[in-house]
Every structure is written in structure tokens, then in C-alpha cells.
From TrEMBL, chain A:
Cofactor: [2Fe-2S] cluster
Keywords: 2Fe-2S, Iron, Iron-sulfur, Metal-binding
Alphabetized InterPro entries for the sequence: NADP_DH_HndA-like (IPR028431), NuoE-like (IPR002023), NuoE_N (IPR041921), Thioredoxin-like_sf (IPR036249)
Family to which this protein belongs: Belongs to the complex I 24 kDa subunit family.
PANTHER family, alphabetized: BIFURCATING [FEFE] HYDROGENASE GAMMA SUBUNIT, NADH-QUINONE OXIDOREDUCTASE, E SUBUNIT
Keyword Lipoprotein: no
UniProt protein name: Formate dehydrogenase subunit gamma
Source organism, top-level taxon: Bacteria
CDD domains in the record: TRX_Fd_NuoE_FDH_gamma
TrEMBL record, chain B:
Stretches the record annotates as Disordered: 158-188, 950-979
Keyword Transmembrane: no
Ranges of residues in domain 2Fe-2S ferredoxin-type: 29-107
SMART domains: Molybdop_Fe4S4, NADH-G_4Fe-4S_3
Keyword tags: 2Fe-2S, 4Fe-4S, Iron, Iron-sulfur, Metal-binding, Oxidoreductase, Repeat
Domain 4Fe-4S His(Cys)3-ligated-type: 107-146
Protein name: Formate dehydrogenase subunit alpha
Origin: domain of life: Bacteria
Pfam families in UniProt: Fer2_4, Fer4_7, Molybdop_Fe4S4, Molybdopterin, Molydop_binding, NADH-G_4Fe-4S_3
């Protein structure tokens, strides 16, 4: 993930989304592009997207807020997602999550004080056969425990 | 919201069924089915829910409403259908032939109860103290499903502000607690309604109403699952800062008190309702005035109203507070000279003072030295009486009306080409349009309810062409985008419309069969030769109009070949030195393309005020008796001479500008002006002021001491539209009833006051109800022969012509050829206005209006609509601003050859470089100090839309503004009767 200045101007946002206007259903790709560049979807993007796509501001806001993956402020340098769905819970996922959160000293959606890691819940990564499962910066990891996750985070630091 | 059984209006008539049928009506082939053992036949495509309502069976519902498409989210309307598995939602299930439906069974009862239990588990139990108590669909539905218990223990919820497990907010108020992050406080930023998230059941009706009915897309559901909430605008918005235009559709749609009128919260739920007609713009929306005794609780658009089909805008829905504003004058007043303070006197004294003065003036200066101005805001009956006053009592034809300054070119232009001075369609017609051409109209601001209907059609795929110097909202706003916007230089309408016709004729795109059948072919040949000349080509006029030739050609081709083409236009067409010419050019364009005489086409003038059409119909013009018949014609005069028992002056009278000129010259001395503020609304304010000042008796009949009253000697307090009976005729020629919902606060209805004035001058009129005035109108005016109050009660409303050929009225005109014979093509040569830019005045000023304000603002300025628009501002292109050192919000001096004023600047690229724009809603700005006395060649309609101006930085109000305000202040002093 690239980390630019967290408060892009309307012009900068426009430059990022304009090449995508030709797509079918361009709003989601545009939101992904914005989050890709700035690590989050700033509020300043709402009027820009409404104008570019000729939508109401409310509609854009409705879409952004529907998807938990679109953040309104930047995450930590790494994002760890731990699965809380049934299959992983049945093989100890809840314990792994609790232990990991405790070690990092954060709650769900929290970011460590050094800005190193943000931890988020996820509901099924499709790895039910090798749960408990987690995902670090988009890379899935199977059969995790708290130690494995700590090691992964250390290695990635 | 609240469903009333509306009492029948006419004796013996059926009461109106005001129920919400759940889903929209359909118009397919008949389908028969059985619901709970009752056979019912409905059109194909109808939902099971609506079919049940048709059979008299109500299925419980929360998310369904018949003005929006079914949504299927509340799951309360589930039914069982024989032969089908499960329990489908009746709102989203269309009927099929032979279907057998059960709306009540132990299975669906159990499901409904369970659903209701979940809803109520997250809803405060504050019914008795809730503003929607007695008017709540959630309450009704809980009753219908027999909810007797909520078994869920208090848990996460959205309504308990303290987080203490309270079941009601009244309980929570008394205790302390840790708080509840899910609880959001009320948003009361909108002046007319509140949004209380704690009462929301997230049925999405408000969001859907905003999208489907109003077309603004200001609302959304934010978040998902338990976090779902209604949100206005983006996360940083409240209702006021969002795109919300306060049309009220969401409030009307809300089944709970989540979106609630503040007036209902304050006054309680209404107990009776009267159907009446809005007194704002020419759309003429039907409303239910919902009352408690003589207290107006709220205005709700009426679903059976044929102009608005259940929709409204911020003005009609909410801005009625002016009728009870403290500025309203309730007692008659007189004064000898305009420098004196007003003296409150009895009606008798005021009327005899007025009558004595008028008679004395006529004795000294002649019969023709006095006159009247009728109002497009008053009823047909009132207007008829005012013109009758001058013709039958004063003995001259000095009557004119505010239509002089707005749509007089429409009357002239359409009369010359089509033979009738009126728009050709009804508003429903827009639902059949494929290409809409809007010229010089800003419907989202000026005619918002029509704009919503238009936007709906555009979202269905109709194409749009806009001819306007400004990029108005209809050019581009959420889900609407014009195929072509032709941003012409103000004053070049004729060149642009003629160029459109040139392309159609030279490229052979005209509808020759139609022209041969309905129009004068020889005249057309002549016209085609004229319009085909290369000087009318888009390329030739581009230099003058500023419209790119290729864009104009594309627009012409689209209009000629895109299917049903409809033209809608406004004052941007008429208020020019060539206003009448443009109207005729528009008529030519419609005839050329065969777009006349069926749904979806036509020429549609959007009328500014509620009764512009009616005021013109009623003989307000100095040369025409009611029904547009020239006063010179002896047989026409004979009709009225017989009815009125007087001799009528065969000489046409004075128009408003002529009256003022004659006043300045000293030959016109007395004026009775009803419901119009000529000082603020007419061009060249200095000249109007000079004319009024020169008169010896100015009688102003109005709700307020308006600007004209500063120069008046007699003030007769008027009644509001809520306080009188009568009729308004809207832009589609629809005659709508205005009904008295309360007694006149000033003591008399306006028609009574005119009658008293006439009688004070010796007329001896004896009308006891406006219905008798309408009888007189229909007995003297051919297109009204079938109109009577009884007929209006039966039909709800009727569009003239209404006579023996069309007993139910005429929704669409010229269906089988033109009424008056053949359509006439008239040569439309472009002649530039004499108002030219030059080194001293390099910019062109054009004027207009804004959604929240109405005309001179006499009404809307006295409501909370000022939240949206507290002053007139000058829109200027950033480039023009920069070279003048003007920045956003600066005071600027706006000067023309006529005068100057000051106002604040707003920088926007809505206007092109070289063009500036302002509104004329506020007397403090007096935009018409700047406008000139140039006017339409045929009708004298002022050229408001083109003034050469200069803009420069300024420190504050101009000398004129200060002097004027001082004079106005002095002039408004009132001594009470005791002094």
C-alpha cells in the first residue's frame, strides 16, 4: 500500500478516479483506487465522486458506509484480519483473536500506538478447512495461533 | 401519513377514498383472482397487496406506499398463495389469473407478530407523548397484527439515550446512565421538520420518496445491519446542509414520527381536512389543508390532485406562515398624502374615502384618468370583478395585470400561431415525452413539482435539451444530464430557436404530413423559404448567440427525430424585447415537427404565479374582455353590456407602463391595485416610483404594506388563499377550487372587498358567493360555458375549454387540428435588443428566481424559507470577478444605464464569462432599479432578462437604497385608531 499525504485535494482525487469513468459500475473501482492511493476514503472524496458520477452525495456516502473495508481514516502500516466466522470459532479462533488483541493492547478495529498494526475482524476467508484463519496485508494464513500471528507481525515489521 | 375520509364536496357526491393502496396503480389487461374468498379483477402487473386493497382488504404493511415502487423489506405484508411455497410478500408479488390468496392464516399471523415484535424491540414505547400519536403506521400495524407482548429483554438499541435498559425515553429522562453510542439525538436543522433517528424503523420509504418522487437523491441508508440509519447527505451533513430541498416527500412517506412536521409536534394531530389549491406557482398543486378547528396544522399534497399527483415543494408544503405573520395588516387604513402616517379606520370610512377620491379624480381629469391592476395571485372570480370594476363602474378599459410583465407574449404569440392563448398540454403529458426542450425556464427552482415529474421521465430515458445562459440544475444534477445545453448569450433566443428550425427545414427533418394536414401550407412555404436562408444557419448565428454550431445542429436533429418532442418554456423566453417573436418561433418549431395534439408533445408555458392563466382568461388586459375577445368588437361588448347593464368603452385602455407614463405626464391619477407589488416587480423602479408619486389616489389591496403601498393613500387589507372561496387556473388551463379553510382574519374575502368598493361608487352589485361570479363568467365566456362550482365538485377540477363539445374539459388541445382553423407559421426575424454592452457596461445581467423564494418575496420572506435565501446575491463567473478584484462574498456595486444597487457576489461557473445573474426576491436589493424600460415589441412585457451592467467592488448599500429605505420606513408608520 502506498501512503501519500492523508488529506488529498479534490483535484488529486479527481485525477485518480477520472480514468475509471468508462467502467461499468465505476463507483466501487473508484473507491478501491482511492483507498489504494491514500489508505482510506477521505470525506473530501464524497462530493468529488458525486460530481464525477452525477450521483447524490448521500448515495456515495451510503455505498462507502455499507462496506466496512472502506475506511474513513488511514489504518496502521499493516492490517491483520482475524476470522470470526463459525468454522474458525469451532477450532479456537475466538481464543486466538483474544490473545492476539491482548498482546497488541488493542480492541477490534484498533491500531497500536506506534501505528504499526490495525486488527480487524473478518467473517470467513474461505479457509474453513485450515482454520483458525487470518489475513495479513492481503495474504491469507491458515492454522494460526497467537504465537504464529505474533511471529508473522514481527517478521513483517 | 394520516388518511382522512374526505367529506363529499357536492351534495350526493361520493366521499374521496384517501387510502394508501400500498403499491402504484398499473394499466394492464384485466386479471381475476380470489383474495380471502372475494373475487377481484385488477390490471395485469398489480401487486397482490393492491388487489387486496381494491377488494377492501387491508394487508398490514410498513415499507410500502402507493407513490413508490414496492420494496419488500418490512416482511409484514406476507400472505399465503395456494399452490406456492412459503409466504411471499404481497407488495412484490404480482397477481396472476386464478390466483387464490389468503391474507389471514395462523402461519402469516405468527410471522407478522414475530416481525412486529422485532421492530418494537428497538422502538421506544413513548406512544402517548409522541408527535405521531394517532397518525402512526407502526402503531396501526402493531394493532393490526395483534402485538400483545415484546419478549426480548432490553439489549442493544437505538432509542435509549442513557444506556440503562429503559423501554421509553420518558423513563430514561429521569435516570442517569453510561450513555448509548447507538443513540443519536434529533436533527432539527430543517426549519419545518425534525429527524429523530431513535424512532426510525429503517423502512427506506423516505430514501425512496426522495429518489423516486422528488428525484433529489438527498437521503441514503448509511451503514448496514444493526448500524443502518437514514442519513441526509454525506457523513458530515445534517438535513439543512445536505442536498435536501425540503419538498416534504420524506416526511409524508415516514410511517412513524422519525420525520415529523414541527407544526404537528407543536399543535397536535389534525382532526379535519379541506382540499384546496396552492397559491404559489403556476403548477397549481392540490393540497389537503389539515386543520384543528380554525388552526392550520399542516398542508399535505393531495394524492388525487391532477397537477401534482400527491407531490409538493417547500413553498406549498411548508411556507404558509406568512398568512399569520405579524406584518399582516388586518384593518383598513387611509391618509391624505403619502408623507403622512397611516390612520386605521373603519371599512366604511376607508371605502367612502376611496370612492370619493376616485370619483373626484374622474370628474376633474376625465373618465379615463383612473384604472385597476388585477392580480395573478387572486382568484378568477376576484380578477373578474376587478376588471368589471373598471369597465362597468369606472367606465373605461384601464385594466392590466402582472402577466404584462411575465407571460403577455405567450398570450400574444400562441394566439397568433395556434389561435388560443394557452399551453397545449396537461402536466401528465410529460410522462409520454421522449425529448424535452426547455427554453428559458428553471423548473427545479421555479416549478419544482413539475420538475420532479420531468426528472422522473428523464430517469426513464427521455432526452433533454436546455437552452439557457446559465447551467441550471436541470442541466446536470443527480441522475439527470441534458444531452445538449445551449448556453446562449442573453437576448438571442430568436436567433437560437430559428437556427433550430433552419436545421430541421434544410435537413428535411420536418413532419410534412402534419404540416399539410394541420397548418396553412402556403404560409409554410413562405416560412420555409425564410428560415432556410443561410443567415439563420447555426454557423451564421454562432457569433451572435455564442452557441457552438455543431451542438445546436445535434440538438435540432435530436428534437426532430427523437420521438415525442415537448417544449417547456418560461420567462427567459417572454421577458425580452423579442419575447413574442420567440414564443412564435417556439410554436413554429412544434408545428414543424408535428409535435402538437397528442400526449407527450406540445408547447408548454410554465406560468410564474398561481393564476396567471386565469387572470389573462378573465379579461385583465386593457384590450380584451374575458375569453380574449377584443373590446373593439361590438358583438362581444354587447354580451357584457347586457349582463352588466352598462355601456362599455370601445377604446382599449392603458397598459401598466402606459399608466405610469400617463401618471408622470399628469393624465392618469387614480389606481386600484390588487395583490400586486408593481414597485418591486416592475422594471425601472425609479420610473414606477415617479408614476405612483404623481397619482392622487392609489388604493393598495394586499396582505402586507408592500413596496407599492409606500405610495398609497388607501390600504385595504386582503385575505389569504386559506380564507376565501374561488378558483385558480394553472399553467395547464386547469380550473382548481380554492376553499375557505378559516374565516378571513381581515374580515372579508377579497371579492367582497372589491364589491364593497364598487358599491361605494354606486355599482349595486349583489354577489353572495363566488359561485355566482363563476356563473356570470360561464354565461358570458365561450370556453367556460361548462364550468360551474357543481361541475368542479364532481370532477375535482377541469381544464378549459369546457363546453358542450368538451363537457369534461380539454386536457390536450388541438387534437384534431387547430381550434381556430389552421396553424400559422409566422416569420421570426432576429432583431438584436437595443440594450447593448459597451465599454461602460460590458456585462449582461439576467434575472431569475430561486426555489425557496417566490416572486417579490412578500410571502416567502415572511416564512422560515429565509433560512435558504436571506438575501439576493450576484452570480458572477470567477474570471469576470478576478479582473475586477471581486472575491466570494464581497459587496459589489451593480450599475446599469438606469440605476445601481449593491449586493454580495457569489463566484460560480454556472454563468458564462460576460454574464451575471441575480434574483429579485428582496426589496433591500431592488434588482429592478437596474433593469431598463426596454420591452417586448408586441406586448410591452419588460426586458428583465437582458441589462448591460458593470460590476465593481463596493463598501455597502447605494445612495438610492439608503434613500429608499428611509422613505419606506417613514411611509409605513401607522397611527392606531385611538390616536
Amino acid at each position: 500500500m502506498h501512503h501519500h499525504a492523508p488529506a488529498p485535494s479534490a483535484e488529486e482525487i479527481r485525477d485518480v478516479v477520472l480514468p475509471l469513468t468508462g467502467l461499468e459500475g465505476p463507483l466501487l473501482p473508484m473507491l478501491h483506487a482511492i483507498q489504494e492511493v491514500w489508505g482510506h476514503v477521505p470525506q473530501a472524496a464524497v462530493p468529488v465522486l458525486a460530481d464525477v458520477l452525477n450521483l447524490g452525495r448521500a448515495e456515495v456516502h451510503g455505498v462507502i458506509s455499507f462496506y466496512h473495508d472502506f475506511r474513513d481514516h488511514p489504518a496502521g502500516r499493516r492490517v491483520l484480519k482475524i476470522c470470526r466466522a463459525e468454522a474458525c470459532q469451532s477450532v479456537g479462533g475466538a481464543g486466538v483473536a483474544a490473545e492476539t488483541l491482548a498482546r497488541l493492547g488493542v480492541d477490534w478495529h484498533g491500531t497500536t500506538p506506534d501505528g504499526g498494526v490495525t486488527v480487524e475482524p473478518v467473517y470467513c476467508l474461505g479457509l474453513c478447512a485450515c482454520g483458525p484463519a487470518a489475513m495479513l496485508d492481503g495474504r491469507v494464513i491458515g492454522r494460526v495461533d497467537a504465537d504464529r500471528l505474533t511471529a508473522e507481525l514481527e517478521a513483517a515489521r | 401519513m394520516k388518511d382522512f375520509i374526505i367529506p363529499q364536496f357536492a351534495p350526493g357526491a361520493e366521499p374521496f377514498d384517501d387510502r394508501d393502496m400500498g403499491t402504484p396503480a398499473r394499466s394492464g389487461a384485466p386479471v381475476s383472482l380470489t383474495i380471502d374468498g372475494f373475487e377481484v379483477t385488477v390490471p395485469e402487473g398489480t401487486s397482490v397487496m393492491r388487489a387486496a386493497f381494491e377488494a377492501g382488504i387491508e394487508v398490514p404493511k410498513l415499507c410500502a406506499s402507493d407513490n413508490m415502487e414496492a420494496f419488500g423489506s418490512c416482511r409484514l405484508c406476507v400472505v399465503e398463495i395456494e399452490g406456492r411455497r412459503g409466504t411471499p410478500a404481497s407488495c412484490t408479488t404480482p397477481v396472476t389469473e386464478g390466483m387464490v390468496v389468503h391474507t389471514q392464516s395462523s402461519k402469516v399471523r405468527k410471522i407478522r407478530k414475530g416481525v412486529m415484535e422485532l421492530y418494537i424491540s428497538d422502538h421506544p414505547l413513548d406512544c402517548l407523548t409522541c408527535a405521531a400519536n394517532g397518525d402512526c403506521e407502526l402503531q396501526d400495524a402493531a394493532g393490526q397484527v395483534g402485538l400483545r407482548d415484546v419478549r426480548y429483554t432490553p439489549g442493544d438499541n437505538h432509542f435509549d439515550p442513557k444506556g440503562i435498559g429503559a423501554r421509553s425515553q420518558s423513563e430514561a429522562r429521569l435516570r442517569e446512565g453510561p450513555g448509548n453510542p447507538q443513540y443519536l439525538p434529533k436533527d432539527d436543522s430543517n426549519p419545518y421538520f425534525t429527524y429523530d433517528p431513535s424512532k426510525c424503523i429503517v423502512c427506506s420509504r423516505c430514501v425512496r420518496a426522495c429518489e423516486e418522487v422528488q428525484g433529489t437523491f438527498a437521503l441514503t441508508i448509511e451503514g448496514r445491519g444493526f448500524d443502518s440509519r437514514v442519513s441526509a447527505g454525506a457523513g458530515f451533513d445534517d438535513f439543512l446542509s445536505s442536498d435536501c430541498v425540503s419538498c416534504g416527500a420524506c416526511v409524508q412517506a415516514c410511517p412513524t414520527a422519525t420525520l415529523q412536521e414541527k407544526s404537528v409536534a407543536e399543535l397536535g394531530t389534525p382532526t379535519r381536512c379541506v382540499i384546496t389549491t396552492c397559491a404559489y406557482c403556476g403548477v397549481g398543486c392540490s393540497f389537503k389543508a389539515e386543520m384543528n378547528g380554525d388552526q392550520l396544522v399542516r398542508m399535505v399534497p393531495w394524492r388525487h390532485g391532477k397537477a401534482n399527483r400527491g407531490h409538493s415543494c417547500v413553498k406549498g408544503r411548508f411556507a404558509y406562515g406568512y398568512a399569520s405573520h405579524k406584518d399582516r395588516i388586518l384593518n383598513p387604513m387611509i391618509r391624505d398624502t403619502i408623507d403622512e402616517p397611516w390612520r386605521e379606520v373603519s371599512w366604511d370610512e376607508a371605502l367612502s374615502f376611496a370612492a370619493t377620491r376616485m370619483k373626484a379624480i374622474q370628474q376633474k381629469h376625465g373618465r379615463r384618468s383612473v384604472g385597476v391592476i388585477t392580480s395573478s395571485r387572486c382568484t378568477n372570480e376576484e380578477t373578474y370583478l376587478v376588471q368589471k370594476l373598471t369597465r362597468a363602474v369606472f367606465g373605461n378599459n384601464n385594466t392590466d395585470t402582472c402577466a404584462r410583465v411575465c407571460h403577455s407574449p405567450t398570450g400574444y404569440g400562441l394566439g397568433k400561431t395556434f389561435g388560443t392563448s394557452a399551453g397545449t398540454q396537461d402536466f401528465d403529458s410529460v410522462e409520454h415525452t421522449d425529448v424535452v426542450l426547455i427554453i428559458g425556464a428553471n423548473p427545479t427552482d421555479g416549478h419544482p413539482v413539475f420538475a420532479s415529474r420531468l426528472k422522473k421521465r428523464l430517469r426513464q430515458g427521455a432526452k433533454l435539451i436546455v437552452v439557457d445562459p446559465r447551467r441550471t440544475d436541470i442541466v446536470r444534477s443527480a441522475h439527470v444530464e441534458a444531452a445538449h445545453h445551449l448556453p446562449l448569450r442573453p437576448g438571442t433566443n430568436v436567433a437560437v430557436v430559428s437556427a433550430l428550425a433552419h436545421v430541421i427545414v434544410t435537413e428535411g427533418l420536418m413532419d410534412e404530413a402534419y404540416i399539410r394536414e394541420a397548418c396553412d401550407w402556403d404560409e409554410f412555404q413562405h416560412y420555409a423559404e425564410f428560415i432556410g436562408d443561410p443567415r439563420h444557419s447555426p454557423e451564421a448565428v454562432e457569433g451572435v448567440t455564442g452557441v457552438p454550431a455543431a451542438e445546436l445542429r445535434a440538438a435540432a436533429r435530436l428534437f426532430a427525430t427523437g420521438g415525442n418532442g415537448a417544449i417547456y418554456y418560461g420567462l427567459g423566453v417572454t421577458e425580452h424585447s423579442q419575447g413574442s417573436t420567440t414564443v412564435m418561433a417556439i410554436a413554429n418549431l412544434a408545428m414543424l415537427t408535428g409535435n402538437i395534439g397528442r400526449p407527450g408533445v406540445g408547447v408548454n408555458p410554465l406560468r410564474g404565479q398561481n393564476n396567471v392563466q386565469g387572470a389573462c382568461d378573465m379579461g385583465s388586459f386593457p384590450h380584451e374582455l374575458p375569453g380574449y375577445r377584443h373590446v373593439k368588437l361590438p358583438d362581444v361588448r354587447a354580451i357584457f353590456e347586457k349582463a352588466w347593464g352598462v355601456e362599455i368603452d370601445p377604446e382599449p385602455g392603458l397598459r401598466i407602463p402606459n399608466m405610469l407614463d400617463a401618471a408622470v405626464e399628469g393624465t392618469f391619477k387614480g389606481l386600484y391595485c390588487q395583490g400586486e407589488d408593481i414597485l418591486q416587480s416592475d422594471p425601472d423602479t425609479h420610473h414606477v416610483a415617479a408614476g405612483l408619486k404623481a397619482m392622487e389616489c392609489v388604493i393598495v389591496h394586499d396582505l402586507f404594506l408592500n413596496e407599492t403601498a409606500n405610495y398609497a393613500h388607501v390600504f385595504l387589507p386582503g385575505s389569504s388563499f386559506l380564507e376565501k372561496d374561488g378558483t385558480f387556473t394553472n399553467a395547464e388551463r386547469r380550473i382548481n377550487r380554492v376553499r375557505k379553510v378559516m374565516q378571513p382574519r381581515n374580515g372579508y374575502e377579497d371579492w367582497e372587498i372589491t364589491q364593497m368598493l364598487a358599491n361605494a361608487m354606486g355599482a349595486g352589485w349583489r354577489y353572495t358567493h363566488p359561485a355566482q361570479i363563476m356563473e356570470e363568467i360561464s354565461s358570458t365566456t365561450p370556453s367556460f360555458t361548462g364550468v360551474s362550482y357543481e361541475r368542479l365538485e364532481e370532477l375535482g377540477s377541469v381544464q378549459w375549454p369546457c363546453d358542450e363539445n368538451a363537457p369534461e374539459g380539454t386536457p390536450i388541445m388541438h387534437v384534431n387540428g387547430f381550434q381556430a382553423g389552421r396553424g400559422r407559421f409566422i416569420i421570426t426575424e432576429y432583431v438584436a435588443t437595443e440594450e447593448r454592452t459597451g465599454p461602460r457596461f460590458p456585462l449582461l445581467l439576467t434575472t431569475g428566481r430561486i426555489l425557496s423564494q417566490y416572486n417579490v418575496g412578500a410571502q416567502t420572506r415572511r416564512t422560515e424559507n429565509t433560512v435558504w435565501h436571506e438575501e439576493d446575491v450576484l452570480e458572477i463567473h470567477p474570471h469576470d470577478a478576478e479582473v475586477r478584484g471581486v472575491t466570494e462574498g464581497d459587496w459589489v456595486r451593480l450599475a446599469s444605464r438606469t440605476g445601481e444597487t449593491t449586493l454580495r457576489a457569489v463566484l460560480t461557473d454556472r454563468v458564462s464569462p460576460g454574464v451575471v445573474y441575480t434574483t429579485f426576491h428582496h426589496p433591500a436589493t431592488q434588482a429592478n432599479v437596474v433593469t431598463t424600460d426596454f420591452s417586448d415589441w408586441a406586448t410591452n412585457c419588460p426586458e428583465y432578462k437582458v441589462t448591460a451592467v458593470q460590476v465593481s467592488p463596493s463598501n455597502g448599500p447605494s445612495d438610492w437604497q439608503e434613500r429608499y429605505n428611509e422613505q419606506a420606513e417613514r411611509s409605513r408608520r401607522i397611527l392606531s385608531a385611538a390616536e
